Amino acid sequence: MIASRALNRVRVEQNSVTISCLERNDIITVEDLVLKTELELMDILNQTLPETRSSLNEIWKRVAPIPTTALEMLEEEKGGSFFIPTNLGEMDAYLKGGFKTGSITEIVGPSSSGKTQLAMWLAAITTHTFPESSVLYYDTESSFTPSRLLEFCCFLKLQECGNDRSLALIKASNCVARIHVVHSGSASDLLQKLQTSSEVMLQHKVKLIIVDSIAHLVGQIEDQRHITFKLGQIASTLKRLATFYNSAVIVTNHTLSSKFSTTSELVTGNGGGAGGGDGFGLSSTDSNEFPLLGRTWAHFVNTRCTLSQQTLTSFKRMESGEEFLQPNRLITITKSPMCQVISFQISINSQSITAQQQQQQQLKKQEQQEQQLLLLQEQQEQQQQ
After folding, report:
1. Contact 108, 214 (CB under 8 A)
2. At 241, is the pLDDT very low, low, confident or very high (cuts 50, 70, 90)?
3. Do the Cβ atoms of 369 and 377 come closer than 8 Å?
4. pLDDT digits 0-9 by tens, 242-251
5. Mean pLDDT (whole number) for 347-360
6. Which of 81, 215, 282, 288 could bridge across to 254 with cysteines, CB 3.0–4.6 Å?
């Protein structure tokens, strides 16, 4: 990350002329500077050897990472802006607040498991939670649906506005306006757009970067060696943006059934399965499914969440006792520095994504509202009689 840092981002007051001179000679990044010898730099800067060494020492002081103690990091985290919440009940509690900024979180699952919907939900949550911040959403499959995003934002704002739908729609539109969608058709195109996103990150105060999906782009690359190299470039760039701008990164990834698995790095890494207890794969309940991109990519991921296919859960209405089936999905935290492997049932409905416990509470609240409405209608009818 340090090697790719642009020299014009290095604040060296005494050497602004030096930086400009280096840039005119195509020395743009720290890596470009390191590859030059002192004699070459003396010629480029037109300086003596002591002067050149003095200029370099000043730059190295600004570039070298400053050690931070664990206590200082802990105090910073208490500020509350270092996590992107999911609003999925106990899941945030286990993750100590949500998905951590400065890290890469991967959402893995088979087709139609809800990966894109969860990505859009997290985008809505971010603009709702951080009113001054934005989201940068890279759509590689043309699956982004703005109307669905607006539904999520309206749901969040409706709770805030006391069920005033007109006011909620205005506030939701403001949230949607802070989600910047970028379409990308290839891995090289995505990498180029990520590498040139610094101005957007600063201008719009981007708090969350979403790539939906990473596997779709990489799957278009035929050369196996090129896949690993390109993945490393994309992951390093995402990590640099996350760290430098204190943003969270969410990427979606597909799974492949074990019956189609090969020794390809794209599927399982080095011939072995990516699942089980190695910290890379899915939960034991989905042991027949493997995340794409393999072990090389898995090492870049800090947190991995796995979505399962839809299941049906039986609920019973409080008053009538009537039973009905509610579709649910299972989300499992299979890799995290914050907690152990644990699963949660969630429901993706017409307005939101909720945890099972939240869902039951909402159903109970809805029933109470229906009962109050019926009672009000009965009172009105009695008064008319």
Report:
1. no
2. very high
3. no
4. 988 989 999 9
5. 77
6. 215
Residue 161's identity, in one-letter code, is: C
CB–CB of 23/29 below 8 Å?
Answer: no
What are the tens digits of pLDDT across the range 249-274? Answer: 999 998 876 555 444 445 444 333 33
Q: Which helix (H) or strand (E) holds 139?
A: strand 134-139
Counting Cα atoms < 13 Å in the Cβ hemisphere of 142 gives 2
CA 274 to chain centre: 22
Residue type, 152: F
Q: How many CA atoms lie within 13 A of 312 on its CB side?
A: 4
DSSP 252: E
**Hey, which residues does 252 pair with through a beta bridge?**
107
Instruction: Take residue 135 and report the two structure tokens written for it.
Output: 């989201």
Distance from C-alpha of 170 to C-alpha of 184, rounded to nearest angstrom = 30
Q: Could you write out the DSSP letters of every residue in 107-161?
A: EE--TTSSHHHHHHHHHHHHHHH-TT-EEEEEESSS---HHHHHHHHHHHHHHHT
For residue 131 the two structure tokens come to 């009113």
CA distance 13 to 50: 19
* pLDDT value of residue 79: 60
Task: Give, in order, the Cα–Cα distances in Å from 224 to each of 65, 221, 255, 357.
Answer: 34, 8, 18, 44
Among all chains, which residue has been given the structure tokens 């099972």? 356
- Rounded distance, CA 291 to CA 33, Å? 39
- Candidates 130, 88, 156; CA nearest to 331 is 88
3-state secondary structure of 76: helix
Q: Which amino acid is at 379?
A: Q
- Residues 155 and 117: their CA atoms lie apart, in Å, by 14
Q: Which 3 state secondary structure label does DSSP give 15?
A: helix
Angle, helix 224-244 to helix 187-195, in steps of 10 degrees: 20
What stretch of H or E contains 287?
Answer: none
Mean pLDDT of the 149-155 span: 94
Reported as a single tens digit per residue, the pLDDT across 84-130 is 999 998 899 999 889 999 999 999 998 888 999 999 999 999 999 99
The helix, strand and coil proportions of the chain, stated in percent and rounded to the nearest 5, come to 45, 20, 35
Residues 6+ apart with CB under 8 A from 248: 83, 84, 99, 100, 101, 102, 103, 105, 207, 208, 209, 242
Neighbours of 257 (CB within 10 A): 10
Q: 0.85 cut: is pTM over it?
A: no
CA distance 183 to 201: 17
